[in-house]
């Protein structure tokens, strides 16, 4: 059992009342680490540290170019520590070492990108109709930002918030999931090592209803950025509304992955596997609804089940493992319950759908056929390796089924017909649409959802605007002040 600590200012801390949360390795089902179970008092201490750092000359006095240099330096440190960070994430959430290491190796690019963008935040000189006035705008940091992140890719999804927030000049308090906090406690110390002043980056660990709620409700927090389920997102939104705080919400999805009759089946099969099985279904963008043209359904399902039957399930630390365990026992039981629900509603089990008789929270990759879009398995986010196959007869029906969901995070289309691809990308109600690809993201391209899949965008140049506020300035160049009782 290893103990890890919160970071508040430059101090590593236990919880103020000495309590801990135990982390369980989902592969071994054994406890392996403890993190502090923070209180509202700890949350207040972190916000106070961030508020003080926000105005301290060590941070507020830096030029934008100097902030950018710090971000690039932390990118270098992440690259140097990628192996160790990836292993901590695997122990915490059971994701594949191969995937986590790839994420860690890519993570520095986010900090290089926003490090370069930090001194490109430009205001504007505005020609005004008010004679004698010089008018311009400037963009300033919001203040203390709270970033609340989930357990499936903790450091990547934190970075989507942290890098632009710091580039814009804010200070940040991170609240990771209680199921996967260890890597964050180590990661945050790299910012001090890189030269960020104490209090610019803080980490508070524990439960959402204890320290997380206290952070969102704190009067000195200027913005909340949240990634997680839609229920948690609604709770954050309601609490932030009490203080009129802006929010960014990246929530769940029930994303359609559409295979047209002219699709390359071999490529589309790989896209379907990437969409829902490669990450054990534990991604918000999972292509969990597979819409297949009826004329190709039998062929596609046969090719898909043959492909996944060859996948190796096992130790996520091993390089040749292709599917790991579900992250928590509760999630494991939830996934299995959804398979039972689907079968009771008339779905057929084409492959998998059972718990593996072995140590670890393993659920067989599951393919369900005879699914209709009104079944719970097609409408509710499962967050596990369960794929629902829905047949369609033409493009219009496929688009109608795809859009018949409260979510709108992502969608995929597999076709050789370019005009058809453009029709789909125009008609699909989703924040990201892939054509002949799936699960591709970039630090340079905005990501976020329509409908109940969220508010705002992450990544790309426009993301930095989510962490800035605009100030308009009027300067009188010498004209006399007119009648003070009349608005100019």
TrEMBL record:
Keywords: Oxidation, Oxidoreductase. One of its GO terms (molecular function) is oxidoreductase activity, acting on the aldehyde or oxo group of donors, NAD or NADP as acceptor. SUPFAM superfamilies: ALDH-like. Residues 19-473 form the Aldehyde dehydrogenase domain. InterPro entries: Ald_DH/histidinol_DH, Ald_DH_C, Ald_DH_CS_CYS, Ald_DH_CS_GLU, Ald_DH_N, Aldehyde_DH_dom. Pfam families: Aldedh. The keyword Transcription regulation does not apply. PROSITE patterns: ALDEHYDE_DEHYDR_CYS (PS00070), ALDEHYDE_DEHYDR_GLU (PS00687). The active site is at 250. Belongs to the aldehyde dehydrogenase family. PANTHER family: ALDEHYDE DEHYDROGENASE-RELATED (PTHR11699). This is Aldehyde dehydrogenase family protein. It comes from Actibacterium atlanticum.
